[in-house]
Every structure is written in structure tokens, then in C-alpha cells.
Amino acid sequence: MIKKPVVIGIAGGSGSGKTSVTKSIYDFFQGHSIALIEQDYYYKDQSGIPYQERLKTNYDHPLAFDNDLLIEHIQQLQQRLPINKPVYDYTVHTRSVNIIPVEPKDVIILEGILVLEDQRLRNLMDIKLFVDTDADLRIIRRLLRDINERGRTIDSVVNQYINVVRPMHNQFIEPTKRYADIIIPEGGQNHVAIDIMVTKIQTILEQNSIV
Ligand SMILES: Nc1ncnc2c1ncn2[C@@H]1O[C@H](COP(=O)(O)OP(=O)(O)O)[C@@H](O)[C@H]1O
Ligand SMILES: Nc1ccn([C@@H]2O[C@H](COP(=O)(O)O)[C@@H](O)[C@H]2O)c(=O)n1
């Protein structure tokens, strides 16, 4: 009999602290059996589109993601099959030519702004989290990160935020909070919430008797 892995979905707005929460959980289970799947890596491949056209894409709309491939990969991992995870390059707005081979694991974390938006993805999850951080903190964090790590200018971050990120957040991301089992305020520094999550994951692993 195949033992089912625990799938944890971590959603929340851009800059809310999803990656930080994910890293805390991931680090706790290092040495155990844990895999990380970033929804961002499943943005649709745009290598056939000129760079200037890629700048016009709405990266905060559900249709920007290749969720079919993402779902296929999660299902493969659940069946204990390996996958080749795509790699995304934010600086050129498309997938890199590289892939990351991922072996099946007991715990799978699926993290991204819209992982709770697609019912098919929600149905694959055992635990659903929403990282909830005020908009002013999210834009400040994003501004610093996008300039330092994603090759952006102040102007581009501000324009994208006002014209796309903010309205899409309100239309598509914020409403998915209602699907969450647990809402984590403020993200990565919320050690109490992270400890509770880790304990819950351990309990599920024991119930599945795969610890
Ligand atoms: N509690 C926090 N206080 C200050 N900065 C934070 C906090 N949590 C995350 N950050 C920083 O904010 C930026 C965005 O956080 P990140 O975890 O990448 O968010 P997300 O994955 O939701 O976009 C990162 O540079 C991160 O280091
Ligand atoms: N080419 C791209 C692709 C995505 N984005 C933005 O990334 C945000 C999601 O990533 P987080 O780590 O912040 O959750 C999303 O809001 C997109 O606007 C981008 O700017 N360029």
C-alpha cells in the first residue's frame, strides 16, 4: 500500500511572509522527508514571447499559472513518483532552462499567492494556511525584496503594485482566506503559529505512520 504524503498549502499576498513561514517549517523537518513546491515556478512558460511583451503579463491573475502541470506534479508526488520541478527566473519573467528533480517525500509544502484559489489544488491539501499581513507591510517588504533580489526599480514596483498587484490581491487572493484552516498573522516571525503547525504536521505523520 502507498502511504499518502501530507500536503500543506501556504497562501497569502505577495510580501506577506509565505516564503519565511515555509522556510521555518521546512528547516524544522530538514533531515526528515520534506519537499517544497513553489507555485511561482509554475508560471506559464513565456520563452516564446519577446521580453517587452512579458512585461505586460498580469502575474497576479490565476490564469498566469500552469496549474494543470502543478496539479499533475503534486499528484505524482502523492503517488510516490519523482518529478522535474521547473525553475522560474523573475529577472526575465519566464522559466529558466533548468529543472530541479524532486523525489517523493512524506511532507509536501505547496506555497504561492493563489494556491488556495483553485479548487483542484485545495482538494489535494491536508492543511491549508493563509499568511495574513497588512497591505502597508506587504508593499514595503516587496519593494525592498524586488529591488534587491528580482532586478526591479522603485518605479516598476510601485506601478505594478498600484495597477495590478493591489487589485488582483483584493479580487483573487484575499477571498481565499476563507478556505484556510489556519490564518497566520504577520508571517515568518510568528513562532507560536509555526510551532503549532509543526506539531500538527508531526501528528499527521504519526497517524499516517510514516515518521
Ligand atoms: N516578519 C517580517 N519582518 C520583516 N521582514 C520580513 C518579515 N517576514 C518576511 N520579511 C521579508 O519580507 C520580504 C518578503 O517576505 P517573503 O517571506 O518572501 O514573502 P512572500 O513569500 O509572501 O512574498 C522578504 O525579503 C523577507 O525577508
Ligand atoms: N515575472 C514575474 C512573476 C511574478 N511576479 C510577482 O511575484 C509575486 C508572487 O511572488 P511572491 O513571492 O511575492 O509571493 C506576484 O505578486 C507577482 O506580481 C513578478 O513581479 N514578475
Automatic annotation (TrEMBL):
It catalyses: uridine + ATP = UMP + ADP + H(+); cytidine + ATP = CMP + ADP + H(+). This is Uridine kinase. Pathway: Pyrimidine metabolism; CTP biosynthesis via salvage pathway; CTP from cytidine: step 1/3; Pyrimidine metabolism; UMP biosynthesis via salvage pathway; UMP from uridine: step 1/1. ATP binds at G12, G13, S14, G15, S16, G17, K18, T19. Residues 7-192 form the Phosphoribulokinase/uridine kinase domain. Belongs to the uridine kinase family. One of its GO terms (biological process) is UMP salvage. InterPro entries: P-loop_NTPase, PRK/URK, Uridine_kinase, Uridine_kinase-like. One of its GO terms (cellular component) is cytoplasm. Keywords: ATP-binding, Cytoplasm, Kinase, Nucleotide-binding, Transferase. SUPFAM superfamilies: P-loop containing nucleoside triphosphate hydrolases. It is found in: Cytoplasm. It comes from Jeotgalibacillus soli. Pfam families: PRK. Its EC number is 2.7.1.48. GO terms for molecular function: ATP binding; cytidine kinase activity; uridine kinase activity. The gene is udk. Its main location: cytoplasm.
